[in-house]
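Suppose you are handed only two things: the residues of a chain and a line of SMILES describing coenzyme A. What would the bound structure be? This form records exactly that question and the answer produced for it, so the two can be stored side by side and reused later without any lookup.

QUESTION INPUTS
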Amino acid sequence: MEIADIVDLETVRACARLFTDVNNAPPWNDGWTEDRSVRRLTDIFSSPGSWGIAASSAQRLVAFLIGNIEAFYDGDHFCLREMVVATEAQRRGLGSRLLAEAERRLRAQGVSEVYLLTSRGNGTAEFYEKNGYAGWTTMTMMGKAIRADRGG
Ligand SMILES: CC(C)(COP(=O)(O)OP(=O)(O)OC[C@H]1O[C@@H](n2cnc3c(N)ncnc32)[C@H](O)[C@@H]1OP(=O)(O)O)[C@@H](O)C(=O)NCCC(=O)NCCS
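ANSWER OUTPUT
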């Protein structure tokens, strides 16, 4: 297994293909098109402070994570925007290994904290908890649907 920084658009496009496949499968069963996945990941990749790593096996991409290093009053924080492990490679420790490697590389760059959003009830929160993450008791995520057809 090789883990490398995500530095080129070719890798971002490969990540988008994996992102589409995995997020359209259980537990998410989303409706991503290749175009929307490419747009989401290229937007993240081209945004300020973008940083990510990808894991490959026999030159095939099997997992990646990407996000942004952001300035905060007490130093730099990393917002983990997307993380995906290929469906057939899940539950074998790869996600944990990739996350630990990201934390190691980010720490070496002076980043002090990693934060993220994820769903409850489909195993992803359990994954992050298993890796030492915890819900913030002093913060909450808020949102509002602002189109009538979305129930807003
Ligand atoms: C979530 C994800 C990144 C985890 O990667 P992974 O390589 O499968 O995870 P690991 O094998 O390192 O799992 C470590 C531990 O996390 C927990 N865990 C992982 N997936 C889980 C699941 N689906 N349900 C419950 N617990 C889970 C378990 O405790 C697991 O240890 P165990 O297998 O010994 O029980 C991966 O399953 C994935 O890409 N899922 C689809 C996309 C996604 O949800 N991405 C995250 C969005 S924020």
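WHAT STANDS OUT: The longest helix spans residues 9-23. The domain at 2-150 is CATH 3.40.630.30 (Aminopeptidase).
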